[in-house]
Design goal:
Bound molecules: uridine-diphosphate-N-acetylglucosamine, uridine-5'-diphosphate
Strand content: 15-25%
Largest sheet: 7 strands, parallel
Helix content: 40-55%
Number of helices: 16
Number of strands: 13
Strand order of the largest sheet: 3-2-1-4-5-6-7
Amino acid sequence: MKVLTVFGTRPEAIKMAPLVEMLNADAEIDSVLCVTAQHREMLDQVLALFKLTPDYDLNIMKPNQTIGMITANVLTGLDDVLKKEKPDIILVHGDTTTTFVSALAAFYNQIPVGHVEAGLRTGDKYSPYPEEMNRILTGHIADIHFAPTTRNRDNLLREGIAEDTIHITGNTVIDALLRVAGKPYEFEDEVLKNTDFENKRVITVTCHRRENLGENMEQIFGAIRMIADEFDDVEIIYPVHLNPKVRETAKKILSGADNVKLIAPLQYQPFVNLMARSHFIITDSGGMQEEAPSLGKPVLVVRKETERPEAVAAGTVKLAGVEKKTIYELAKRLLTDNAFYDEMAHAVNPYGDGKACERIIKILKNSENLL
Ligand code: UD1
Ligand code: UDP
């Protein structure tokens, strides 16, 4: 069976890397990897860590790219690869524009699609934007759906997706996390090397969502700045996404405070170790809402909604919204109310057990009738 895996951004790469490793090692599978490079540096960091060499690199990233630019370049670039490789199936991940457009290119070539991390929904087509629509459209093109949780499966069933094409596998993010977490690790980054994790309370921050650019991001960073100014024993460490719009706002509101460190995006291994040594996390990232609960770290999600309600139900994640006052108050409470902190700081694993990749490959091998 020839399996072509396609991804393009940092989170897709992290979550697909352990699967590609396993596909490459399987004697019954001819595994081909194509990266769109919708991200460049942030993708290359992951490829280097997992020692993956793509067979095809569409190299499409442009500074300040629009969704339309990504769409056009992935569609034409991948079309050539599909015509040349003629895979039995392509695998895509999650909800980026690389994901949806790769599925579309496969459909145009009448090639089956397997969707990894299928069935996440908020119910609001503009939030997250464009991810909610990307995953709905991908879900309706896909032939096999690898849903992380029962809730994700139920979302697909509600949209009329055939039950026998949906498989609950867990999320491959836990497979990736287990490859790097819990091993002895010393930071190489100067800021992290010089951080006093014993005596300071470190808050790890990330923020990048398109619907948060502008006013929401100003509110979020405003709250973080208030916390930094008020608490001497708090250190904010924020590896800033390479999106120029994010960098500009972060610099405007957060630079100039001694206890706020704006640093470059970290490789996955140091980043996981940073999360593991942090007091808590403030983020709008999807993947970190899945990773932090398994590390037992409280998370304030700076968004209006989440497609990952499992960790909210388990108590480790709180939806903090995008208003300065609410975010500030919740962060302050985590710093001042021990009982509130302890209630959130327990390890749970609602997203997987580290065996998702193994299950996906087994299902693929049993799905030859679809191909
Ligand atoms: C993209 C995905 C989003 C995903 C996120 C993960 C879309 C439309 N958006 O958003 O779903 O959650 O990735 O991070 O699919 N840049 C660099 N180097 C990099 C990466 C980005 O310079 O390695 C800069 C470029 O100027 C680029 C900009 O960031 O144009 C935005 O990148 P883009 O992929 O369009 O959007 P993200 O916000 O990263
Ligand atoms: N991450 C990383 N280095 C960083 C920040 C995040 O390796 O400096 C990892 C993080 O652990 C998670 C993923 O990148 O696995 C999240 O990516 P991002 O926030 O770009 O996308 P999202 O999760 O929102 O889709």
